[in-house]
Amino acid sequence: MRRRDITIGQLFSETVNNFPERVALRYSGNSITYGELDAVTDAKARELGDTRFAEIPANTKHRPAREMAEHIITYIAAVKSGKIAVFGKLTDEVRQAAEREATSNALSEAILFTSGTTGKPKAVLSNHYARINSAAAHIDALGATELDRFLLAIPLSHCFSLTANLISAITLGAAICIPDDRHTDNLLRCIERERCTIFNAVPTIFNSAAGRITTGNYDLSSLRTGFIGGAAYTPEFFRKVNNALAFNLIPGLGQTEGTAAYTFAPWTAPLNIRAETVGRVMDGIECKISERGEILIRGFCVAKVLNDSQMVDGDGWLHTGDCGFIDYDGYIHCAGRLKEVIIRGGENISPAEIEEAVVNTFPQIRECAVFSVPDPHFGEEICLCVAADETALSENQIRAGLATSLVEFKVPKYILIVSELPKTEVGKIAVGELKEQIQKL
Hints:
This protein is α/β, with parallel strands linked by helices. β10, α9 and β11 form a beta-alpha-beta unit. The radius of gyration is 22 Å and the shape is globular. A five-stranded mixed beta sheet has the order 2-1-8-7-9, sandwiched between helices. α1 packs parallel to α6 and α5 crosses α6. It folds into two domains: 328 residues, ANL, N-terminal domain (Rossmann fold, 3-Layer(aba) Sandwich); 100 residues, ANL, C-terminal domain (GMP Synthetase, Chain A, domain 3).
């Protein structure tokens, strides 16, 4: 898709003018056409007044569909009227930084906050140009058309959903379908009821969906494709979800600081490419691997981090924090987050490797998380938290099972069995919260 140098407001107006009768939103049995959405967002823009920023609540874990629709309306009203949409609460520090940046950059579009699963959330100021052209790359990878129906399984406060769902649908004049809430059953019922074709989500949501399919009766035959992103997963997990949902799952590597995904494999790519790589970098973006193995990117999609000056270096390279390598065909292989690597007695240990062993060895474990905890002798030790029926497995059984597939120093010293792992609002495992729980034991 060709590069566009317009604002999201202009993009929305184009779609309204070309397809006023097409359905834009579907929720709770209601339909709103693009023409109707135009009128509603104009009224909302007048209600917002002259304020520079329009705040949109980010806490939407299980909000009713009507509130999700209201968030879409507020966002569109904001960008149509030249305001900056803010997904969450704006502190004085971030406000001042945003005002300074917006003064020199008239294309400022939205402030989103990183998930903060392991540290302090970063405030990221994105721009219209990057959002629109990032969405175009997502559309190409999805092979999406105006006939597709996008399931809104993730709140707009996640850059992934804002770009791959809302802006992609607006670009095409396609429909966004909002479930009654984000419980797994209602997500699947929405796909069935609205005949959704595109399901973009984070791994934990896909994991729950794959598990629910085996026990529930759902017609998901309309599904064609969708992105998985926002957290690490294994090739085996990818294949499990791809096959359980009977659609062509797509990988992508991205982050809020990069507007959304910046690597893609098309939905038509062979399964081994989609499962084992995160695709190739999008057109117009440079990518390189640092000496530490970190993936660096540079180009139009790199957004402004308002409260962290070290994310982007003086040459414009975004330090993604992901590590990996690029193969001879240009496909990027991601090995996990650089800061999540556990260094135990001088040995570098990948949490993803241990998590993969857990999933392969114990099918009764629904999900797991591996991370480091301080140790006076080795510097760091390995901690494993699993979500399972607490009577199904013991710590000793898990440790013995992992010893058959992992070398001794990679077998977790600490194992915690819980009924559910804590999640952020977008469904990622809250590792920081888990670490706090461990420290209290």
